[in-house]
Amino acid sequence: MTTKGLYCPAGQFYIDPSRAVERAVVTHAHSDHARKGSQQYYCVDSGISLLKSRIGKNISVSQYAYGEVFEINGVQISFHPAGHILGSSQVRLELNGEVWVASGDYKREKDPTCEPFEVVTCDVFVTEATFGTPGFTWNANADLGQEILNWWKQNASRGYNSVVFAYSLGKTQRILGELFPLTDKPIYCHPSATEINECYRAHGVPMAATRCLSRVEPDRVLTGELFIVPQSFMNTEHAELLGRKYLTAFASGWMAQRSGGYDHGFLMSDHADWNDLVRTILETKAKKVFVQHRGKGALVKHLKSLGIAAFPDSDLFPKNPDQLSLF
């Protein structure tokens, strides 16, 4: 790590840098992983349209298929599916026979809108741990699409609109993908998701029919409809379409531990839960593990109890933060 993020000194490139750099290897298009201003980007081919929609159509970007090996300054690199969103990737690095994998964000649950996670064996695994405590576990057999549809139908029968708060990139499309085989009725989406939805459809991802809220007559009040929107929606003029009868829900892994003042919650996460974090780390057969996001918490302690050399990602920082740190 350096002050700009995870850095490979041998290859002179960053993985998901926090600032503009010369070479940025990007795991996926979420704004906390893909930032504007870098001179050259590298990503998997199925994620390039999302990357351009988020940070600029005219960026200089090199694209590769999953598993395709390329080199930057002698370091062999390949992207492997992370199961987080469309085009999300783990980054495998190899130099002189030593293999590191940076996971980026990942999940192991089935998702009809993105490539399924692939276990990549390595010597060193740098893993995310957004939900890296035992209190966060998901039901892998839950039919989330049916749960959302049932809630929507129940609300509609009472004359209420249904508002599901979800991130515009990833979660919105996953909900639409889960609902695709269940309903022909169009679902109202926020304008921030419209271009993203088209990126997914252009890659052949089947999703339920949608209508963009910006194309609805401003004086109209809807009844019994499903809205998939970011939380900021409630502070916009589009919220007037709801009238006074609506119920809210949040689709998130955070629903495992708090209600957040919503009328309902759907335990739908685009990150691995505690069980899948531990399972994945064991399956990589890594001799050393660095934990991001919750590096000083339960996961590091648990891995150590299993005899795995585990460390917080802060241990990747050199004494001089401007020095090189990986390899």
Can you give a write-up of this model?
Strands 6-7-8-9-10-17-18 form a 7-stranded mixed beta sheet, covered by helices on one side. It has 6 helices and 18 strands. α2 packs across α3 (171-179). The longest helix is centred in the middle third of the chain and has 14 residues, at 144-157. A hairpin with a 2-residue loop joins β8 (89-95) and β9. The termini are close together. The protein has 327 residues and is of the alpha/beta class. The protein is globular and about 65 Å long. The chain has helices spanning 48-55, 144-157, 171-179, 191-202, 274-284, 298-305; strands at 6-8, 13-15, 23-25, 40-44, 61-64, 70-72, 75-81, 89-95, 98-102, 124-127, 161-165, 187-189, 210-212, 226-229, 246-251, 264-266, 288-291, 309-312. The chain folds into 2 domains: 6-136 and 271-316, 4-Layer Sandwich (Metallo-beta-lactamase, Chain A), CATH 3.60.15.10; 144-266, Rossmann fold, CATH 3.40.50.10890.
